[in-house]
Amino acid sequence: xxxxxxxxxxxxxxxxxxxxxxxxxxxxxxxxxxxxxxxxxxxxxxxxxxxxxxxxxxxxxxxxxxxxxxxxxxxxxxxxxxxxxxxxxxxxxxxxxxxxxxxxxxxxxxxxxxxxxxxxxxxxxxxxxxxxxxxxxxxxxxxxxxxxxxxxxxxxxxxxxxxxxxxxxxxxxxxxxxxxxxxxxxxxxxxxxxxxxxxxxxxxxxxxxxxxxxxxxxxxxxxxxxxxxxxxxxxxxxxxxxxxxxxxxxxxxxxxxxxxxxxxxxxxxxxxxxxxxxxxxxxxxxxxxxxxxxxxxxxxxxxxxxxxxxxxxxxxxxxxxxxxxxxxxxxxxxxxxxxxxxxxxxxxxxxxxxxxxxxxxxxxxxxxxxxxxxxxxxxxxxxxxxxxxxxxxxxxxxxxxxxxxxxxxxxxxxxxxxxxxxxxxxxxxxxxxxxxxxxxxxxxxxxxxxxxxxxxxxxxxxxxxxxxxxxxxxxxxxxxxxxxxxxxxxxxxxxxxxxxxxxxxxxxxxxxxxxxxxxxxxxxxxxxxxxxxxxxxxxxxxxxxxxxxxxxxxxxxxxxxxxxxxxxx
Length: 569
Fold this sequence. Notes:
The structure is a single chain. With 569 residues, this protein is of the alpha+beta class. The chain has a domain at 11-183 and 392-462: D-Maltodextrin-Binding Protein, domain 2 (3-Layer(aba) Sandwich). It contains 24 helices and 14 strands. It has helices spanning 11-17, 26-36, 44-57, 74-91, 102-115, 130-136, 142-147, 192-195, 198-208, 218-228, 249-256, 259-263, 303-319, 329-332, 352-355, 404-417, 423-430, 436-439, 442-447, 454-459, 476-492, 497-518, 534-538, 560-568, and strands at 65-71, 94-100, 122-126, 179-191, 214-215, 232-233, 236-237, 282-283, 289-291, 343-348, 371-374, 389-397, 466-467, 557-558. Strand 6 and strand 7 (236-237) form a beta hairpin. The longest helix has 22 residues, at 497-518. Residues 1-24 have low confidence and may be disordered.
């Protein structure tokens, strides 16, 4: 298992950590609350009541050993290192929470789907797989689970209405397939201090003829990237863009996580474009995937997609630190915190916790950041009503191949780490909000000035417009690996953007065709259109769209403080 961090959570070890005898349960819960839960949406009495419910519900599973898995991010590290031992001590269920790479999580999930062998008792995997889970029906839909087999282990205080991401984990059949455990958005990041420096503002205005501010389109982003690149600020050479380009699974997420929608490749429709989504996959009115290439009505190799890749490459080559082209997602993420990046278009709020540490070059002495986050700008093909950006919703998923008793024990752990008792503290650690009660907790009102706009974003109505991959993608594990392999060819220069995207859409259609022939997804599976002259589809309304005469329209910027005010109103 690559990069696995295994947390020993045998009951005796966990209880020893709490200084408690092996038969302890409520005493373990009280010790945990005393040591780790300073802030909560629940009163202390309500916390103890919730812990007592977990103790009672776990009684049939005493001394059971279960193993769950998630990707390695700050939130899940907290779950694995703090909450898993506490859960074991309180309930007597010995849980090991593995942390591995995101690509490895998907690979393990795919292997369990294909083999039917129970590799993990529960997975935290992205809601990006909702289209896969809905079509294959290999995971327990939680709506039926909570009313049926899992009713006796479903927390009466779960409060699903308090979760902000369940719309992304609910399939078109109206069933909830996954329970959010963390979520974060893909936003624009910039140096607020530099953008508000009067000398820098005046110089930009003189050179470009408009005000330096948060870019609302890619034209302005490109101008700002050009303006900052090569300057020296505070003794450091500055770059106007940050990104990554290594041929690695994370390069695929760089594009499927709504980069193409931000460029304007897909159809109108929120939270995901229909009939064409951000992967360029087209579906019919029965939700069956019917094509990816333009000649079948898809948009993966459409002019807007080519534009999206070419802009990425141009900015990577001209405005980004040279080392970035050989970096992965996780390697590139911390770079802006080093202090020489002016802005980053494609920045995940999951990095917030690592960007606000004391002593960083991007932090002020009073603990406030020198940077801010804002909505990402749109590409030339984007139109009002289209998807605006991506939101990752890492969610608990129970496979049908997991035996019922193990699934029940894992479901208890999933609810524990997402419970109202622990969620405020967990969110202060990882800053990946899942509950409305947490976002609006007074402790985040106090902390908001030190988080660069994160709290303001998640308290605004705008947050619901950022969404995960929609339901057009019928097999996320199979299709996702095609993206990084083909986009990597464009990133490295082995192929042009058009060549790489045509290879990609053809490879996607080969997978769709195999699924269609196999018939394993029933009436929801692919039903490919006949190939037609691309001009037929390009002349139809919406996606795929014909090439624009001008792919660099007039640049638009807005003042950050004005933007935040509009959110608050």
